[in-house]
Amino acid sequence: VKAAVVGATGYAGQELCGLLRGHPALDLALPMRGRAEAPPSEGVLALDTDRFGEVDVVFLCTPHGAAAPLARLALDAGAKVVDVSADFRLKDPAVYEATYGAPHPAPDLLDAAVYGLTEHARSQVSGARLIANPGCYPTSVLLGLLPVLEAQLVERGTPIIADCKSGVSGAGVAPTATTHYGNVAGNFSAYKVGQHRHTPEIHQAAGTEQVVFVPHLLPCFRGILATLYLTPILGVGAGQVREALAECYAEEPFVTVRSDRMPNLHDVDLTNQCHLGVAEAYGQVVIVSTIDNLQKGAAGQAVQNANLALGLEEGLGLG
Ligand SMILES: NC(=O)c1ccc[n+]([C@@H]2O[C@H](COP(=O)([O-])OP(=O)(O)OC[C@H]3O[C@@H](n4cnc5c(N)ncnc54)[C@H](OP(=O)(O)O)[C@@H]3O)[C@@H](O)[C@H]2O)c1
Q: Which of these is catalytic: 136, 164, 248, 274?
């Protein structure tokens, strides 16, 4: 089974190429640059969309906006597509335009796209041709929150605070003033409060606008830790919330509900794991969720989704 990775020079693309090189059934046939004008570089071919017909799956690791036209070419060539960018995550093109500042590049493909939060979308992903791989922050928030919302344990109308922190690799390979060493080392800051593009994605997937998402930049390279604060319905505490999570993920190889202590970034570093912990504080239930943003938040979940869509064992190549 053959794969192409477009945007193989970026952080998500490099991580994906690394995973595919160790994958027993998916062959990294075409690692490609993302921009048409970019020349081949060591181990990475120039973009050649005419070759999409040679592979079974095309992973798109380009910026949003650039991915959708490539997805169309790959689908037309008969390949399945796992889009790691944001192009197919939001169902409503008007919300996409408001969030990303440009009209949706392929609104006619939105109906075919499946939002691939794997543990919560297994049957849809299995039959999908086009998979929208979730954003890194949304993955960390939704894995901790969805089972609790589904069990109706959260008091309606109360804010659910999603206090999230990410390493700098979440911002991509191109250096910026915000992410350069002098600004990040020994520092810690909140950013894009109330304006981050992952907010509508979280609201759409959670089915509620109760979530107040605040991102922070950590002085480390990889990892996300999300601390979720929620008001439970009367009579419910951390015990029932933990039970809902444990029941939902009992059979899941990539989600662990810890009972020993709260999870931290090192627990999930370089793995496709999400670790969850639950506690109670002053009437609030606190859920801590940790993932590696480049693995479960991007390349790892992309491989998990591709395995499912291609009829392979879901965990292949993921350690
Ligand atoms: N980093 C994360 O933690 C993470 C997590 C989840 C999802 N994502 C999403 O995954 C995608 C890639 O993220 P990343 O962090 O890997 O970004 P990145 O490090 O900036 O890499 C993106 C790659 O896309 C190519 N590219 C740049 N501009 C392009 C354009 N206009 N058209 C086509 N290709 C272009 C570049 O490769 P060439 O130089 O070869 O053109 C670049 O290496 C983004 O959409 C991002 O939102 C990232």
A: 136
Q: What is the pLDDT of residues 183-233, one digit of tens each?
A: 999 999 999 999 999 999 999 999 999 999 999 999 999 999 999 999 999
Binding site membership of 31 for ligand 1 (Cβ less than 6 Å): no
Residue 213 CB neighbours (<10 A)? 24
Pairing assessment for the beta strands 160-166 and 211-217 based on DSSP bridges:
parallel
Angle between helix 238-249 and helix 136-150 axes, rounded to 10 deg:
110
Q: What amino acid is encoded at 180 in this protein? A: H
Phi and psi dihedrals of 144, rounded to 5? -80, -25
pLDDT digit string, tens, across residues 29-53 = 999 999 999 999 989 999 999 999 9
| pLDDT tens digit sequence for 69-92 | 999 999 999 999 999 999 999 999
Provide the pLDDT confidence category of residue 319 given band limits of 50, 70 and 90.
confident
Map tokens 């991007």 to a residue. 298
61 is an active site residue: no
CA distance 10 to 28: 16
Q: Is the CB of 300 under 6 A from ligand 1?
A: no
Candidates 315, 290, 292, 262; CA nearest to 118 is 315
